[in-house]
Amino acid sequence: MAVVVTGLGCTTPLGGDVPSTWQAALEGRSGVRTLDNDWAELYGLPVNFAGQIAVQPGEVLSRPEIKRMDPSAQYAIIAAREAWRDAGSPEVDPERLGAVVSSGIGGVWTLLTAWDTVKDRGAARVLPLTVPMLMPNSPAAYVELEMGAKAGAHAPVSACASGAEAIGMAFEMIESGRADVVVAGGTEAAIHPLPLSAFAAMQALSKRNDSPATASRPYDTTRDGFVLGEGAGILVLESEEHAKARGARIHARLVGLGLSSDAHHIAAPDPGGAGQTRAMKLALERAGLAPADVAHVNAHATSTPAGDMVEARGIRGIMGAHADQVLLSATKSMTGHLLGGAGAVESVFTIKALQDRVAPPTINVDSPDPELEVDLVRNTPRAMAASGDLAAINNSFGFGGHNVALVFITA
Amino acid sequence: MALSEQEVLAGLAEIVVEETGIDAGDVQLEKSFTDDLDIDSLSMMTIVTLAEEKFDVRIPDEEVKNLVTVGDAVSYITTAQA
User: Fold this and answer.
1) Which CATH architecture has domain A258-410?
2) At the top level of CATH, which class does the domain B5-81 belong to?
3) pLDDT tens-digit series, residues A348-402
4) Is the separation of the CB atoms in A259 and A282 below 8 Å?
5) For the whole model, what pTM was predicted?
6) Which of A154, A322, A337, A402 is catalytic?
7) ipTM confidence score
């Protein structure tokens, strides 16, 4: 069963929806700024900036919705509603409708706020909705409830590959005939002092406190770590048959999924990149495409010294000389790293890139890593071929050695 | 200084509105939490937890099932804080 994309939604550090986020990305704007609080001073955080969400959920959700959902679920619901409207709010048999929405970290705000309550005010003050708010499947469950999805609700967790893995799982639900329509994506709301401290303790975060907007700089020789971001991306995936029967507008087609695991280290990527490369190869094989068919890659590229070049070398390894013609974009340079939301928001970017036939820019690359042998789109967007089918890969890799590659083609 | 029933009702209504989105005007003494206001048991427990803190009273778990109407809760809280 062929799978098409009929709806897109997101809320990100660049904007509260897809049009504003995509516009900001094409303009090469940074969504990264100094924290709106005094955590750095209060807790001695070595990092005082992040990719904070552009539109607060309180501006678009009701008070009871805010109180019942962890921010990770709030972002997912905001993106899911946009995606569903964008898909034309289709009538779907509930038993043929699924929801797959992942978070890399789960309801960390709810968990830690409830722990503060226990310590400061006693166990009796802990609210009864704490468990349904903190469980990592909560965003998937709220989307399932909102849509009335009864074909299955899932939340595959694989750190920073979670959002892409959710889309992959939705792809397989439709391909295998288990569902006609699946609302799928990822979300994260982990800009909290604890995750910031913990990522900083790993030396994973950029410490460019005096210049937050330039801190996320994938492939630049002076990159010094990733920038924590937050937000969600959601796709409405649909069997081609179902979409055509209802006359739906098709944004793009999801044609390939490649999954692999490194079995190398709990956090570091395999420096040889064998697992990442295999994920890309498997995805292309499943799509029935050759490396030479790929016009664009939305890279995982988080701006860490260790990670970026492993992926870039892998792309070069697969594509060979064709890598000189592959437009490589690292949109985390603008959004920061949305962890479990990253693969989904970057899928939205990949689909918009195919639709508009333009690759979004990578900002802050003043001096590209000399080993980079792929055509990096820097500072301003670059047009892709004006006619013919275009194929693009979206890569996502997670701590634990989880590798996910998705292949989309033009509608 | 103990609050009057009217003050407790107003304070309880604030919690209910915030938690459920129900119109404040619907939170009346004779209304049943489950049958009229459509409040499920988890939301009821949330309202009880917040009310305990707001009015500085203790509402034992076994007592919650007796709080059928808004008026039951208002009476209980008014008496408990006295």
Assistant:
1) 3-Layer(aba) Sandwich (3.40)
2) mainly alpha
3) 999 999 999 999 999 999 999 999 999 999 999 999 999 999 999 999 999 999 9
4) yes
5) 0.96
6) A337
7) 0.85
